[in-house]
Amino acid sequence: MKYSAPRGAKDILPHESALWQSLDEKFRKIFTLFNYKEIRTPIFEMTELFSRSIGESTDIVKKEMYTFLDRKGRSLTLRPEGTAPVVRACLENNLIAPDQITKLYYFGPMFRYERPQAGRQRQFHQAGAEVFGSSDPLLDVEMIILNLQLFNAIGLKNIEVDINSVGDQKCQPNYRAAIQRYFAEVIGQMCEDCQERYRLNPLRILDCKEEKCQPFIEKAPASVETLCDECARHFEKVIEYLKLRNINFRINNRLVRGLDYYTKTTFEIVSSLLGAQKAVSGGGRYDDLVEEFGGNSTPAVGFAIGIERVIEILKTHNPQPTTQSGLLLFIATIGEEAKRIGFDLVMKARENGIAAEMDYLGKSLKAQMKLADKTLAKYVYIIGEDELNKGAGILKHMGSSEQKEVKFTELFNNLTP
Ligand SMILES: [Zn+2]
Ligand SMILES: [Zn+2]
Asked: In whole angstroms, what is the distance from residue 123 CA to residue 308 CA?
């Protein structure tokens, strides 16, 4: 019997995990600098949580969710994104209160049934942040800067910021109407998906990736033209503060993002290093979602980074130095009695915070030395019969090949990391 990972699911192998760990560590440091705290939500949720918030007419809900019935017939879904679960968790655990800012970040796997391709898997990972409690445009800008600083920390270059404003409850209907009027003329020449989108939610047409639809989409009205005064002022402030911080950005009128809950600011960070320009991260404001979930009206803004895409760029453009094993000590032994003492020393070393290893395959001394070399251990400590009698082994520094006799009891004092 031979098994393989399900299509679109990938193992992160030992030689790759160091990169994931370093990314995770650097991200956590930056999130902490910005005063965000981690939240970990379940990998599955009730299906309605996603279908209502992301939008029934979106591609995610219509064809990409991993939805199943549990043994009691409840419909559950593997989370396709992180925002809805975070909002749910905040309301359930009273993490959001009036006159209070709540800043959260998350890191974990998401699931979408899409055609697998480079940088896109069916199980993929996102790091994201959400901030609740203020409609201040400064927070929109903080989100963008946080995002850039995360990328800066891992050495991701050639990135650009695209921003747009999609308006709010007051002015979004005007935009929808403008879009509907515009596409009414041309929809017959567009793809089948777009025709369905036109019936269900015309804004979704702007997400279409079909080649033949692009000329029509490019000429579509821009959402910034239909903004109400409040939304226009908010957008102006965002731009003003981005300029204040010398952030390069461009206004992208097509940026409505593939989710229904966005209001006012939407943004994407795109990398020109992925061949065609592709978003490595995206987010925006969602001032109505908390209320839609049954909470008090609470403005919010967030983003999510696609980790696989980031890793793909880092692997191609920033080759990592070969990772050291971090092993300080390898103990090689000859004979049963030496092995007993060696095992005791390996365990004591680990108790003392020294990364150590030994042979468990009964290899010859020569083979053990080879193994020590392969594990990149800094020191090898050899215990044979002579050494047993003396209560001391031979300590060899693998880099310089220098060796000296060191008592069992003195071993740890003679190791320098
Ligand atoms: Zn189309
Ligand atoms: Zn508005």
From this structure: 10
Cβ(82)–Cβ(45) below 8 Å:
no
Q: Is the dihedral of CA 216, 60, 36, 308 positive or negative?
A: negative
Whose atoms come closest to the Cα of 208: which ligand? Answer: 1
CA 211 – ligand 1 centroid, Å: 8
- Taking the CA of 175 as reference, the closest ligand is 2
pLDDT digits (tens, 9 = 90+) for 234-258: 999 999 999 999 999 999 888 876 6
Q: Which of 356-386 are b and which e, b meaning 16 or more Cβ less than 10 Å from the residue's Cβ?
A: bbbbeeeeeeeebbebbeeeebbbbbbbeee
Looking at residues 29-55, what average pLDDT do you find?
Answer: 95
Q: How many angstroms is it from 123 CA to the middle of ligand 1? A: 26
Mean pLDDT of 119-142: 95
Question: What percent of the chain is predicted at pLDDT more than 90?
Answer: 77
Alpha-carbon distances, residue 339 vs 300, 359, 372 (angstroms): 61, 9, 16
pLDDT digit string, tens, across residues 204-216: 888 888 899 999 9
Q: In sequence order, which ranges of 245-360 are alpha helices (DSSP H)?
A: 289-292, 307-317, 336-351
Rounded to a whole number of angstroms, the distance between the first and last alpha carbons of the chain is 45
Of the pLDDT bands very low, low, confident and very high (cuts 50, 70, 90), residue 275 is: low
Contacts of 63 (CB under 8 A, 6+ apart): 113
Report the interhelical angle of 137-153 vs 229-244 (nearest 10°): 40
DSSP 159-203: EEEEEEE---TTTHHHHHHHHHHHHHHHGGGS-HHHHHHHHH-GG
DSSP 217-265: HHTSPPGGGG--HHHHHHHHHHHHHHHHTT--EEE-TT---S-TT-EEE
Residue 94: other Cβ atoms inside 10 A: 8
Phi/psi at 242 (5° precision): -65, -40
Sheet holding 66-69, edge to edge: 44-46, 75-78, 66-69
Output the CA 164–ligand 1 centroid distance in Å: 21
Burial of 209 (0-12, 13-18, 19+ CB in 10 A): exposed
Distance 190 CA to ligand 1 centre (A): 5
